[in-house]
Specification:
mainly alpha; Serine Threonine Protein Phosphatase 5, Tetratricopeptide repeat; 2 domains; 82% helix; 0% strand
C-alpha cells in the first residue's frame, strides 16, 4: 500500500483553500491585519494627536516625525500612513496648505497600497478640504465624491457627514447653490441621526450663512 506524504497533502489543501476562498474575503483579512499601527508606533501617535489638538504644534510635529521614522523602520505601513496624516493635520492648522497636501497625498498612496479603505477615505476627505482652502474647489469636489463612495461602503456615517459638509463648501466655491444646500442638508440629517449636537449646530450655521449669501433671508433665519 502506497503511503501518502502528510506534508505534501497539507500543501495541496492550503493551495486549494486559497483559490476557493473569495478574493473579497482575502482582501478583508488583509485590511483587518493592517487595521491598527504597531503598539510602539501607536504610543507615539496618541500624544502627537493630543499635542495637535491643544495647539502645541512643534511638539506634535516632533512626535509625528518620530512615529514616522519608527513606523518605517518596523515596516508598519498603517502607522506610516497615520503619521503622515497627522503631519498633514498639523500643517493645515499652521496654515501650510501645500505641505499638508503633500503629506495627505503620500498617506493616500499608502492606504491604497495596503487596502485600508477607511484610511483612504480619510485622506480623500482631507484632500478635499485642503483643495477648497487652496482655491481648487473642483478638485475638492472630486476628492470628496471619492471619499463618500468609500465611506458609504463601510458605513462610516459620522465621517460621511463631515465629507458632505466639505463637499457643500466646495460647491459653494464653484457657484452651484443647489448642490451646496443639498450637501449641507444631507450632512445635517446624519448629524441629527447620530445625535451630534455640536456638528449639527455648526452645519445649521453653514446653511444659515449660505442662505444669507444667496439672499434667502427666511431660510437663513430658520437655520440660525
Amino acid at each position: 500500500m502506497t503511503r501518502r506524504n502528510p506534508h505534501a497533502f497539507l500543501a495541496i489543501v492550503t493551495i486549494v483553500c486559497f483559490f476557493i476562498v473569495p478574493i473579497s474575503w482575502r482582501s478583508a483579512a488583509a485590511q483587518t491585519s493592517a487595521a491598527m499601527p504597531t503598539l510602539e508606533v501607536q504610543g507615539l501617535l496618541d500624544p502627537a494627536r493630543q499635542a495637535n489638538l491643544t495647539a502645541r504644534y512643534e511638539e506634535a510635529t516632533a512626535l509625528y516625525e518620530r512615529s514616522l521614522i519608527r513606523a518605517r523602520n518596523l515596516k508598519d505601513r498603517k502607522g506610516e500612513a497615520e503619521a503622515l496624516l497627522g503631519l498633514g493635520a498639523v500643517c493645515e492648522n499652521k496654515g501650510q496648505i501645500n505641505k499638508a497636501l503633500a503629506y495627505h497625498l503620500h498617506a493616500l498612496a499608502i492606504s491604497r497600497a495596503i487596502e485600508d479603505t477607511l484610511g483612504e477615505a480619510i485622506s480623500l476627505q482631507a484632500l478635499g478640504s485642503l483643495c477648497s482652502q487652496n482655491g481648487r474647489p473642483r478638485e475638492a469636489v472630486e476628492y470628496c465624491g471619492q471619499a463618500l463612495v468609500l465611506l458609504r461602503q463601510i458605513k462610516e456615517k459620522r465621517l460621511e457627514a463631515d465629507t458632505l459638509e466639505s463637499l457643500g463648501k466646495a460647491y459653494k466655491l464653484t457657484g452651484e447653490p443647489q448642490r451646496t444646500l443639498e450637501s449641507f442638508q444631507r450632512a445635517l440629517l446624519i448629524y441629527r441621526q447620530t445625535k451630534d449636537k455640536i456638528a449639527e449646530a455648526k452645519t445649521l450655521g453653514s446653511i444659515g450663512d449660505f442662505c444669507n449669501y444667496t439672499g434667502q433671508a427666511q431660510m437663513a433665519m430658520d437655520n440660525h
